[in-house]
Amino acid sequence: MVSHVISFESPVAKIYDVLPPPKADLDEVLAILFTGPNQPTEDDFKHTPLLVCHKNIMDSLTWLCNNHSDYRHVRISQDNLSQYTENAAPVDIIYQHSLSNKVPKGTSVFDISDADGTDAGACPIVVHGLIGEQLPMTDIKTQKSLATHHFKEDNGVLAVGHAEAPESIYKNTSLYPSMFPWLFPYGKGGIGLTSMSDSAHKKWLMMYHDKCFQTDINFLFVAFSHEQVKSSTTAGFLLVKKDKFHHIANRILNLDERVLDEVST
What we know:
It comes from Armillaria gallica (Bulbous honey fungus). The strands form 2 sheets. This protein has a two-stranded parallel sheet. It has a two-stranded parallel sheet with strand order 2-4. The protein has helices at residues 23-27, 42-46, 54-67, 78-82, 140-152, 175-179, 198-205, 217-240, 245-253, 257-264, and strands at residues 18-19, 32-36, 75-76, 93-97. It contains 10 helices and 4 strands; from the N terminus they run E-H-E-H-H-E-H-E-H-H-H-H-H-H. The protein folds into 2 domains: 18-153, no CATH class; 168-264.
């Protein structure tokens, strides 16, 4: 391993104490775009991955308010919920007339279909560029070439800002519940809340009967990375406290750089 995980807090533009948010607020950050020769029908809307279901929204918010500590002061607004149409997209639908939704540069010479899409079932998501499964099989030079080509074509990018200072991995009981909300649905059980050591607590979490922690590759990597950082930091502090540390440090500082150059060549 040549790198470690560093966690930053992502900025939140608005902190809501009333959920769901007003429909107008959601329209500011999200939109659904339909392209094609005809405007979308009701059957087309059913293929979109995000439709409003009042009962599911109410049940989910009620559960969070009753069980998750971060939602303790949140109020559920029936008025805001009524702004969303049942079985419809939660945001405005934008229609752009087009004879085809195909990208000329990305279409194979053997592709004779009129448009990309499906007549039944869920609507597929088209990803332009590399996806996660392809990255391990693509060397770094190829990735750089694809990225350079992407920018030369004036294609857009998504930039997600973060706080200036990273989150501490020491005595930060909310770190793991914030990083992995799907593993800590109640917002409780963070590392450092028990009398167990951090490493013992992580081993205990990975022994859950449903193996949710054990099978989550992101949790395993982050947990192992943090243990390595703590182990090396502890070893560094112990070395500094030794009597011979200052002697070793002075010898390193007084090394002749010319000798190092000769040895390296």
